[in-house]
Amino acid sequence: MIELRSDTFTQPTAGMRAAMASAPLGDDVYGEDPTVDRLERLAADRLGKEAACLMPSGTMANLAALLSHARRGEKAIVGAESDIHLYEAAGATVCGGVAYEPVRNRPDGTLDPVDLASAFPEDPTDPQFALPGVLCLENTQNRCGGVVLTPDYQAWVSRFARERGVPVHLDGARLFNAAVALGIGADEVARDADSVQFCLSKGLRAPIGSVLAGSGAFVASARRVRKMLGGGMRQAGVVAAAGIVALDEMVDRLADDHALAGRLAAGLAGMPGVRVTSPVVTNIVLFTVADADPAAVVAAAGRAGVALTTFGHGRIRAVTHADVTAGDIDRALELLSAVVPTVTGRGPGPTDPTTDPAADPTPSGTTGPAGDPAGTLSFATTTDGRQHHPEAAQ
């Protein structure tokens, strides 16, 4: 099976397994695990933050951040297509009485400035309205195809939020993919966020864990929330050891995953009836197949030996990672080229009107802010100018 459902399927390297077996250990709930301490210092330094805390998962890291920033009765402003809003079981509402206010994501992953401004009440003293307690960004933006938010855009959002007294949390589950795609350090990606989390267990190949970082006071609060949620771990250096290897050895190679995603997208875009729906700049490829149920395509692909997943709005997702080779991509394209006609009832052909030749899967540069939050502000990631918002009518 060629595994393209997610980069969470990556297996730890031999070096990670060796480090896990030999890691010095202590009780991390007592703050006495030296390997956890080492990982947290390394992560904080890489992100340019004062402190960091190892978390069992990205979901818990995001939840701890929201509960540390926002009080009961306040709201978290989140992207309508964000993982925090869609895939994390409304944890902040359930556990902390924090409401979610979704704001429309534009095709490039950014939040619409007019909608963002509307999430803040005109009169903050009016007790009818819940006040924002935290504003959340996601970089890379999973549901928009792994697109990257630029530092300029993130700086604008931070200024916008701080002028209103609201902190910014960055869900950087694939933050290092963003840094590699932009050709900058992870600290630049995280620079303007008050708190940030990233996953060790996606493209960085560690088997478990995420890291949440911010100021010393923020991290102290997040540790308390982690304990409340049941996330206190004992000899957690076994997990942290793999995370250290991930940060030391797995970051630069993410560029290979991005190249393979571009290779996959280019091949898919050439198939009759297939349209790549978002610019491919990191390791995520979203595509549709005309006249076909996405679930039927995924099932048929699975029977043929290619594991994909449906992804809402009629789309299918493929994610490249360290356990996928160029040969795997070429084989996957070969198999999918045979699968698609059987699902759509179309015969093979060189061209098709539903194929969008302008959906260029390769990056061509980035652009930053070009206006103001009154509605003229426009931010874009790598694109050929023909981006399509997935299922805009929904």
Summarize, please:
The chain is of the alpha/beta class and 394 residues long. The chain has 14 helices and 13 strands.
Please tell me about this protein's structure.
With 394 residues, the protein is of the alpha/beta class. The chain is 38% helix and 14% strand. It has 14 helices and 13 strands. It has helices at 14-22, 34-47, 58-69, 83-86, 91-96, 113-118, 151-162, 175-182, 186-190, 216-228, 237-249, 254-269, 294-304, 326-344; strands spanning 2-3, 51-55, 75-79, 99-103, 132-138, 168-171, 195-199, 210-214, 274-276, 284-289, 306-307, 309-310, 316-319. A 7-stranded mixed β-sheet has the order 2-8-7-6-5-3-4, sandwiched between helices. Helix 1 runs antiparallel to helix 11. The radius of gyration is 21 Å and the shape is globular. The two termini are 34 Å apart. Mean pLDDT is 89; it is low at 348-394.
Largest sheet: 7 strands, mixed
Number of strands: 13
- Look at the structure and give the mean pLDDT: 89
* Multimer state: single chain
Draw up the topology in text.
Elements: E1 2-3, H1 14-22, H2 34-47, E2 51-55, H3 58-69, E3 75-79, H4 83-86, H5 91-96, E4 99-103, H6 113-118, E5 132-138, H7 151-162, E6 168-171, H8 175-182, H9 186-190, E7 195-199, E8 210-214, H10 216-228, H11 237-249, H12 254-269, E9 274-276, E10 284-289, H13 294-304, E11 306-307, E12 309-310, E13 316-319, H14 326-344
Parallel strand pairs: 1-11, 3-4, 3-5, 5-6, 6-7
Antiparallel strand pairs: 2-8, 7-8, 9-10, 10-13, 12-13
